[in-house]
What we know:
Layout: H1 2-5, H2 8-34, H3 41-53, H4 59-68, H5 72-93, H6 100-131, H7 137-165, H8 168-199, H9 211-230, H10 233-249, H11 252-262, H12 271-296, H13 302-321, H14 325-353, H15 359-387, H16 390-411
Helix pairs in contact: 2-7, 2-8, 3-6, 4-6, 4-15, 5-6, 5-8, 6-15, 7-12, 7-14, 10-13, 10-15, 10-16, 11-16, 12-14, 13-14, 13-16
Amino acid sequence: MKKIVNNKLFLSSFVADLISNFGDVLYYLALMNYVLLLPDTKFALAMITASETLPILTGLFIGIWADRTKNKLDTILATLVVRVGLYVVVGLLMGFAPALWIVAVVCVLNFLSDLAGQYENGLYMPVSLRVVAAEDRETATAFKVTVKSLLQIAFQASGAILIGFMSYQNLAFFNAGTFLASLAIMATLRPALAKLLKENPIQQVEQTETGTGIVKGIRQSIKESYQAIQNIPVLKASIVTIASLNAIFTALSPLVILNMKEFSGFVIVNTGTTIALISILFSVGSILGSSVGIALFKNVSLLNLLKFSTLMPVLLFSGFFLHNIYVVLAVLFVTAVTLGIFNPKMNALVLNELPEDKLATVGGGIDSFCQIGMVAGQALVALMVTLLSATSISLIFLLLSVGLLGYTVITGHKPKKEFVQG
């Protein structure tokens, strides 16, 4: 941990990321409040949800684009300039009286900003390999998760306060300002990062000139990325399992609400307290997992953590089926601790084992695939909620969880190659 804290390049780039994250959190809260001023709030919310969901489907292609970009440092700065400009436009729009058309335009601009953010992350991935040594990447990720989890609470609280006395227009300009601050920090770091890249140049994907060549190149990138994942069985198993877990856990919030409505014993003090406890326990568990847990379980393999993770939804939906809030809270806490340990190990595996010229492509593809599981789960839960009781939904997801646990155990019996992070 000492090496990470003393790594000025790592800390400075992380601070730049945190500043822009604060702007995003603040403006998302502001936008949620803004739509309440409109008569057609539901349609506005649907547009916002779509603008937040659509970038999930572009991860693979944005990753391919990032891997094929030669001048990564200057392009990173350009993406930040674009995001500053987009939110300046949002600020100007917020000067008009609240209207649905403004939300529609803001959603388009927010979508473009998210794409720019994805592109920036993809560009920075191979650069980050020069900033943090291979043996320190798991610790670095754990540090980032811990700090982000702690600051997320502070961001939400301070955001709620700022919304109380700042206009929506000023909040949009404030968000643009956070990207401007990130741009200033990254511009300051550019000479040091350029020196690292000069000493250890980034491998580049071969470029093709014609339209047909580009399409062929994209197909080849997808094929090679798929093969890279196939060559690491534990990574392949992890992706399928994480996507399935994301899909299954989408039932969490609806089941909490349904159980509180149908069973008075599922409530602790009141509904507000119950919902707050879930959020607090999950945040605390994530922080403990990524700080204390990552040190205690440093030599535990990803495969064993994966098996343990798939046991959690079995216990969770058993708690829902029995309508026992205390079992649900306890399992959620352990789940959060497990994820806090698992995620840094998974990130280190991706960074250390995949070819650097395909990092953004594979990383974007992994993110898209895992998040698509969540989208599918949300659609399934939305249908179930209208037709079934809390008990029936709990039973269905309990059975699905048992199936996932069985799949993970079976596929983990004879792995061709297992990586132990240590």
